[in-house]
């Protein structure tokens, strides 16, 4: 145990510095997201049947996610015996508050899920290898494929997916579906994915951004490629929500949600392209994104909420006028972002490790 | 000239990383760009390939000004950058097939070339490994393959042989010699003087951001020229070691 003291102390220090190295706004954002995640998970749990399978899935998922959060490349290099390795691994998990939320939620799914998670950490090779999710779509352009894969590994996107699934489950089960819910969900989806839009190069890290610069693409080409990925990533859950609305509330309501979704997507694409070349920050898999500007986040919130609701509740000509305005807004800002990227490439690169 | 740089300067704040470098590399030539760590080699390569904007000076690649038409320059060059510039979420195969269409290759051409490169670089077994999960050597060979896939007129390789197994390194050397024989210019930075001496025809030695020597291999042993300009750190008495 004494031999392991410095290593375990190092793991605690890494976690402590990660937590305290953030601004109060970032920590507040992360705490809010964690609360949202816990609440959302509890609601999803309420829909699950009382069978062993959800508990098994929760246990294995917790083990895999908790291990994915360990410090990168660190303890594996030391000559540790099996018992030492277990202790190091448990310390890594125990000092991470995110793991506590996961274990709590898994315990709500099934009382023995946390125990299964701990066992899986040591006995399940797939979990031990860690950090591998689906292969992702394979029959689409590689840059889009790469963006989709990187995005689905972010917690923000997972939560957005959870919201969309929960809405569909609600649409299926609710006797009288609330019209307000249909209007608000596209806006919530856009806002919960806003980190992806506002920080398009965050998942690429610096080396990925270098590859964009080496390819024969102009700044405008790069911005277009990133916007396409965003539209696919956000369009999929919004499409699912729209289908559920068409099915439960009819054509008129479904069409209004489609117009609202497209409006919000265009606004987010334009504003996101502009912000992405202004102040990028790194985003890592299996973490919540943080590091973005609070002001940019507030502007996103206001834009999506106002335009989304106006598009959903106005007369049809008003909805289409707002849609047209959003299209123009997206076009202008994307073009400006493309030009700006050419001049700011060194600044963007310096901000991405 | 395939590569022509005049008065290249790069400053980061008050620090001058590259200080007035002139370079000229002809078609069909393999040029070695040597120097100690921190001399400014990678910064120079980044300026030559458009990753960094020079503070001063001009770059012309294959007769095209980099500042005036960067996309045309990028279409005509292949680059193995210092940090490899790979995406963690794409497999090795996907990396090689990623860029083909951007360089005007058809899907069939891209797949055929990518397959050949993977086999020749001994990556075929690992083609479906994501770059984020691959070893350093595999990542480097993938980036090397990406640099070659579109048959560039000029190739920039930053430390191509470090971390590569001997048989793959030999195959890489063969490819470079063949490419140069067909008229492409190859620009290599490396610390491996023996390897460079066998491969390159001309060289420049950089120190403190300035070119301190340049010439043709074969005139004088490269090691002799190198250590005439680059001092080794003073000896220490490691009595505790061994």
Quick tags:
heterodimer, A: 353 residues, mainly alpha, 16 helices, 0% strand, B: 242 residues, six-stranded mixed beta sheet
Roughly how many Å is the radius of gyration of chain A? 22 Å
Ends distance of chain B? 52 Å
The percentage helix of chain B is 25-40%
Question: How many β-strand stretches of chain A?
Answer: 0
**What's the total helix number of chain B?**
8
Low-confidence stretches of chain A: 125-139
Task: Kindly state the percentage of residues in helix of chain A.
Answer: over 70%
Provide a count of the helices of chain A.
16
Q: If interface size is counted as residues with C-beta under 8 Å from the partner's C-beta, which chains form the largest one?
A: A-B, 28 and 30 residues
The whole-number mean of residue pLDDT values of chain A reads 78
Helix/strand order of chain B, N-terminal first = EEEHEEHEHHHEHEHEEH
- SS elements, strand count of chain B: 10
Q: What is the mean pLDDT of chain B?
A: 92
- Per the principal axes of the C-alpha atoms, what is the gross shape of chain B? globular
| Contiguous uncertain segments of 5+ residues of chain B | none
Structural class of chain A: mainly alpha
Oligomer: heterodimer
The arrangement of helices and strands of chain A along the chain is HHHHHHHHHHHHHHHH
Strand line-up across the major sheet of chain B: 6-7-8-3-9-10
Describe this protein's structure.
The complex is a heterodimer of chains A (353) and B (242). With 353 residues, chain A is an all-alpha fold. Chain A is built from 16 helices and no strands. The radius of gyration of chain A is 22 Å and the shape is flat. Chain B is 33% helix and 25% strand. Chain B is built from 8 helices and 10 strands. Chain B has helices at residues 41-49, 70-76, 92-98, 107-120, 136-148, 166-181, 193-199, 222-229; strands at residues 3-12, 15-25, 30-34, 56-61, 64-65, 77-80, 154-158, 185-189, 202-207, 210-216. A 6-stranded mixed β-sheet of chain B has the order 6-7-8-3-9-10, sandwiched between helices. Chain B has a 4-stranded antiparallel β-sheet with strand order 2-1-4-5, covered by helices on one side. In chain B, β7 (154-158), α6 (166-181) and β8 (185-189) form a beta-alpha-beta unit. In chain B, α3 (92-98) runs parallel beside α5 (136-148). The N and C termini of chain B lie far apart (52 Å). The mean pLDDT of chain B is 92. The chains are: A mainly alpha (353), B alpha/beta (242). The interface between A and B is medium-sized, with 28 and 30 residues.
């Amino acid at each position: 145990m004494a031999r392991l003291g410095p290593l375990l102390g190092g793991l605690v220090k890494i976690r402590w510095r990660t937590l305290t190295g953030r601004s109060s706004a970032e920590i507040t954002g992360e705490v809010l997201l964690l609360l949202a995640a816990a609440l959302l998970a509890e609601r999803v749990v309420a829909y699950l049947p009382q069978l062993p399978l959800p508990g098994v899935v929760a246990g294995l998922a917790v083990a895999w996610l908790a291990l994915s959060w360990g410090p990168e490349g660190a303890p594996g290099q030391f000559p540790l015996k099996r018992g030492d390795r277990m202790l190091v691994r448990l310390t890594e998990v125990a000092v991470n508050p995110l793991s506590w939320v996961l274990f709590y939620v898994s315990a709500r799914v099934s009382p023995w899920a946390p125990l299964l998670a701990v066992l899986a950490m040591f006995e399940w090779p797939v979990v031990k290898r860690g950090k591998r999710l689906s292969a992702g779509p394979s029959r689409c352009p590689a840059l889009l494929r790469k963006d989709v894969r990187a995005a689905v590994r972010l917690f923000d996107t997972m939560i957005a997916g959870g919201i969309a699934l929960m809405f569909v489950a609600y649409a299926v089960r609710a006797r009288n579906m609330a019209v307000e819910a249909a209007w608000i969900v596209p806006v919530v989806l856009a806002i919960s994915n806003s980190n992806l839009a506002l920080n398009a190069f965050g998942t690429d890290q610096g080396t990925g951004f270098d590859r964009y610069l080496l390819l024969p693409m102009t700044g405008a080409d790069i911005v277009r490629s990133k916007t396409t990925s965003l539209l696919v990533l956000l369009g999929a859950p919004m499409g699912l929500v729209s289908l559920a609305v068409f099915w439960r509330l009819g054509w008129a309501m479904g069409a209004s949600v489609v117009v609202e979704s497209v409006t919000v997507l265009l606004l987010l694409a334009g504003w996101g392209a502009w912000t992405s070349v202004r102040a990028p920050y790194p985003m890592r898999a299996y973490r919540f994104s943080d590091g973005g500007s609070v002001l940019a986040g507030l502007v996103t919130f206001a834009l999506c909420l106002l335009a989304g609701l106006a598009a959903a509740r106005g007369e049809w000509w008003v909805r289409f006028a707002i849609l047209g305005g959003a299209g123009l807004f997206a076009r202008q800002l994307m073009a400006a972002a493309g030009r700006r990227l050419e001049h700011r490439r060194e600044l963007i690169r310096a901000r991405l490790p | 000239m395939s590569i022509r740089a005049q008065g290249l300067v790069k400053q980061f704040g008050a620090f001058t990383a590259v200080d007035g470098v002139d370079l000229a590399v002809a078609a069909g030539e393999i040029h070695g760009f040597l120097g100690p760590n921190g001399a400014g080699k990678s910064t120079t390569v980044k300026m030559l390939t458009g990753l960094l904007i020079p503070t001063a000076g001009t770059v012309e690649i294959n007769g095209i000004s980099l500042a005036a038409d960067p996309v045309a320059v990028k279409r005509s060059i292949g680059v193995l950058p210092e940090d490899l510039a790979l995406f963690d979420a794409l497999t090795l195969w996907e990396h090689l097939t990623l860029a083909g269409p951007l360089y005007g290759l058809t899907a069939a051409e891209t797949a055929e070339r990518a397959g050949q490169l993977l086999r020749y670089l001994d990556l075929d077994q690992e083609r479906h490994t994501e770059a984020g999960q691959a070893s350093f050597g595999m990542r480097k060979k993938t980036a090397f393959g990406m640099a070659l896939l579109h048959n560039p007129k000029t190739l920039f390789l930053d430390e191509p042989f470090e971390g590569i197994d001997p048989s793959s390194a030999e195959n890489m050397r063969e490819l470079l010699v063949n490419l140069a024989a067909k008229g492409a210019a190859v620009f290599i930075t490396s610390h491996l003087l023996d390897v460079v001496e066998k491969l390159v025809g001309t060289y420049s030695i950089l120190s403190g951001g300035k070119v301190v020597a340049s010439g043709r291999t074969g005139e004088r042993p490269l090691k002799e020229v190198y250590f005439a300009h680059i001092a080794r750190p003073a000896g220490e008495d490691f009595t505790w070691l061994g």
